[in-house]
Fold mitogen-activated protein kinase kinase.
Amino acid sequence: MLWLLLGPFHAMENQVLVIRIKIPNSGAVDWTVHSGPQLLFRDVLDVIGQVLPEATTTAFEYEDEDGDRITVRSDEEMKAMLSYYYSTIMEQQVNGQLIEPLQIFPRACKPPGERNIHGLKVNTRAGPSQHSSPAVSDSLPSNSLKKSSAELKKILANGQMNEQDIRYRDTLGHGNGGTVYKAYHVPSGKILAVKVILLDITLELQKQIMSELEILYKCDSSYIIGFYGAFFVENRISICTEFMDGGSLDVYRKIPEHVLGRIAVAVVKGLTYLWSLKILHRDVKPSNMLVNTRGQVKLCDFGVSTQLVNSIAKTYVGTNAYMAPERISGEQYGIHSDVWSLGISFMELALGRFPYPQPLQLLQCIVDEHAKAAKRKAGT
Ligand code: ATP
Ligand code: MG
């Protein structure tokens, strides 16, 4: 009874763990794991992704002794589940009963588009599917899992950034989709701005986002915020960028014309650079224009990853008052829409207040005003 002294994980370390993945409205797939206690949440999601390639699974559940479902969506919760499971199989062993597999119930997230109230038409192409058919039959060899975990780590840790090397300091602000922290990067001694966004998305989408963010390494303009890297940890993405000690323009209220003129030149140069790379900014507004004490003005938060833009739009329902009428109405949009947002932003900075009435009829007002102006133009 050494395991009583060492705890369940030690006693079970060499024990093969069988995880029964329940498939909604059909049977189940048994997956044999040889290193149960080391199993990570991401490994399980990866295997669920192979069993249910069509679904977007972001979490799974297991049942406790009362039959209540408990959700697992992180490594911490995985540990709690495994610890609970090992204690139940010990009881079964002691009582001479047959050992039951660990049953898990994949939880699918809402179908795409359901929460996108503005019906934004962003590029919704699906990511390249790596699993054309369910690769799991009865069991998966544990070495194939190890290999895929190592590959994933490489893919999901874009650049040289990782959570362990970052010390979070102050909170710089909260946005509609996340929180931005001032942070210290230990190996380089650099101060960073790290934007952390919670996203309940599949591994496939995470991979797609990481590959779409790659283009940021090629962005080289003094009017665009520097990008240092990004990584996913559990259900959150951290995007590490250059820290701008002057913050964003939304806090500066009324900006005198001669200063605003210089800011406008920098912002337009930044946008022209992005457009030359066929990137639409998609979120031009004063809080995405940053300044520093070296007198530089840089754009941030541009929609380089359509999948990231999509995932945020699906997760966070928000109103963007700087959006062009065609975007509010859910029509196709392009460079002109960025120009609209640029105009509204500069009006706000020049007037010291937002130019449209706030907030109730705002979106309708933008669409109506635009329609009226178009009519007037047609009549002249
Ligand atoms: P939204 O989420 O709708 O884009 P937002 O731009 O206000 O709104 P965030 O992008 O999360 O929200 O940014 C929050 C705040 O963090 C900003 O208003 C800005 O003041 C600050 N901030 C963001 N990036 C940086 C940076 N690189 N350096 C310094 N401050 C930053
Ligand atoms: Mg922002």
